[in-house]
Amino acid sequence: MLVAGSIYEACKYWEIFMGMSFTKCAIVTSYEPTTQSVRTATTDLTQESEEEYKKKIYERMLGGKKLTEFEKEVKEQFKDAPAQMKLLIVVDKLLTGFDAPSATYLYIDKSMRDHDLFQAICRVNRPDGEDKDYGYIVDYMDLFRNVQLAVADYTSEALDGYDKEDVEGLIKNRYDEAKSELEGTLTSLEALIENVPSPQADTDFIEYFCGDDSENDEKTARRDTLYALTASLSRSFANCCDRLVSDYGYSEDDVNYLRSEISGYNKIKEMIKLASCDYIDLKPYEVDMRYILDTYIRAEDTRVVSELGNMSIVELLLQGKTTTPVDLVKDLPGTDEAKAEMIDNNLQHEIVKKMSSNSVYYGKLSEMLKKIIMQRKVEAMSYEEYLRQVVELAEAILHPEENGNYPDEIKDSAARRALYDYLGEDVGLTIDVDDAIRISIQPDWKKNFQKQQRIRLAIYKKLLLHKFAEDKATEETNNVFDIAQRQEEYDA
Q1: pLDDT tens digits for 234-277?
Q2: What is the DSSP letter of 88?
Q3: Distances (CA, A) of 176 to 159, 179, 261
Q4: Among 373, 403, 433, residue at a domain's last position
């Protein structure tokens, strides 16, 4: 939040930001752009008055929306989607009672004191998950000499209504806090890594943090700890690295060694995220951390595994039709053995994710993957041959319509493919059952028992027409209905 000295100055700030293409900001003040305010203002006919200027800026900012609607929208974005609304420019409004834990920086360009100043400070003092321990105050008006005196003696009227415990530690030196966090986090991270068995090769890290079942609660807790500590270490180093030599007695060699250590821990984190498939869920939160790594920690040009963008590793394997598989995965972290572990885990993750929609087809792919893994581990195939086979398997996982040897009438429908695989590859029966399901579907059928019974009956009748005995038809009706429930095509 930026606190401007007046509404006119707030409008000037907004215009400057717009001119610099910083568009994710808005003004929130008590001003209302009405014709009345301009009409009553004293105006030099040769110049634009302040009132005319404010009205012009507000109308440009509102873009035809009502003021109340616009303010409600930007406040919600600021609180719930801060990437879409990064800065609110205020004067008095929102400095009291506006609770937005995402607010982290307060820029003060207005003379404030006592209770008003403390209320403003509290806007950025709300915790917001593990990524925010405290807020930052950027004081352009040199207000904090008086604030620190008030905090020291607890007698100023600024502190009326506050207990001593509430005020204690309200304002801290950011460098002292960052240096303390840096040293404590480094000790905790070293203790965690000590648990990884020797010789601490890449595969040892993957085994310790992922194992055969990365969803195991203990493995998940280890990874969560690794991610949180590594992020905290990187942030705290970025916040104090420029003062470690001048203020805290570190040598340049100490800082460079620390930078190298932090870079190493982040490489381990990247490798574990990929091996466990956590990178898919964590991707939205990595932008700020990537900036910290590139700006403060990495000395060499960045080679980012997260350039996967919206791809999974399984999708990555299919990107280079004219590229060898070895080239496709060359930028993944770790040794060839570690890369293979990552690929194995990601393929299995993708298979498990899709298994419920077609257990027959993906069950076969799961068995194929087990054989590939076994052959790789007993060194019955080269690394290049392993990569060739997993590329083929990735194609089969992501594009079953092209790799399942399905008839033309079946291949382009996931629902028909699932029925075809389950019903013994009988094309006629598959099409009849699929048609019966589609004809019987009614809106919200997955939540309504009567509508479900209608579909079951339709399936049962088709099975009888295809010479199923009544007992067998009853049994298979339930199995086919279960398959139908898991098909997105049948959602209505």
Answers
A1: 888 988 888 999 999 999 999 999 999 998 898 898 888 888 87
A2: E
A3: 25, 5, 21
A4: 403
Report d(CA 483, CA 464) in Å as an integer. 19
DSSP state of 467: T
Alpha-carbon gap, residue 344 to 369, rounded angstroms: 8
How far apart, in Å, are the Cα atoms of 340 and each of 199, 251, 253, 346? 19, 40, 36, 10
The C-alpha atoms of residue 61 and residue 310 are separated, in whole angstroms, by: 33
Query: Domain ends where: 167, 182, 213?
Result: 167
pTM above 0.70, yes or no: no
> Per-residue pLDDT tens for 46-71?
556 888 899 999 999 999 999 999 99
Q: Indicate the number of domains in the chain.
A: 4
Is 411 among the domain residues?
A: no
Say if residue 288 is in the same domain as residue 215: yes
- Please name which of 314, 386, 379 lies closest in space to residue 345, comparing C-alpha atoms: 314
Q: How confident is the model at residue 42 (pLDDT cuts 50, 70, 90)?
A: low
Give dist(CA 85, CA 120) in Å, integer: 19
pLDDT digits (tens, 9 = 90+) for 286-331: 555 566 666 666 555 444 433 444 456 666 666 655 445 566 667 6
Q: Are 233 and 265 in contact (CB under 8 A)?
A: yes
Same domain, 294 and 324: no
Residue 27 belongs to domain with CATH number: 3.40.50.300
| Same domain membership, residue 357 and residue 293 | no
The answer to the question of residue 67 being in a domain is: yes
Domain that holds residue 139: 2-167
Q: How many CB atoms lie within 10 A of CB 459?
A: 24
Please tell me the distance from the alpha carbon of residue 200 to that of residue 188, in angstroms, as a whole number. 18
Assess whether 156 and 181 both reside in one domain.
Answer: no
210 belongs to a structural domain: yes
Q: Structure tokens of 464?
A: 């009888």
- pLDDT, averaged across the chain: 81
Contact of 154 with 167, CB cutoff 8 Å:
yes
pLDDT of 170 reads 55
State the pLDDT at residue 131: 57
Both 350 and 429 in one domain: the answer is no
Domain membership flag for residue 233:
yes
